[in-house]
Amino acid sequence: MDSKNISTLVDDIRDVITKKGGWDSTVSEFFRGAVGDAMDRRFTKEEEERKPTLRMSNIGTPCKRKLWYYLNTELRTTDLPAGTLLKFAYGDLIEGLLLSLAKAAGHTVEGEQDEIVVDGIVGHRDAVIDGVTIDVKSASTPSFKKFEKNELRVDDPFGYIQQLTGYVYGGKDDPLVTDKKGGAFLVMDKTLGHIHLDYYDLTPELSLLPSRLVATKMMSTMKTEPYREWEPVPDGKSGNMKLPSACSYCDYKWNCWPGLRGFAYSNGPTYLTRVAKLPAVPEFKER
Ligand code: SF4
Question: Is 196 in the pocket of ligand 1 (CB under 6 A)?
Answer without folding.
Answer: no
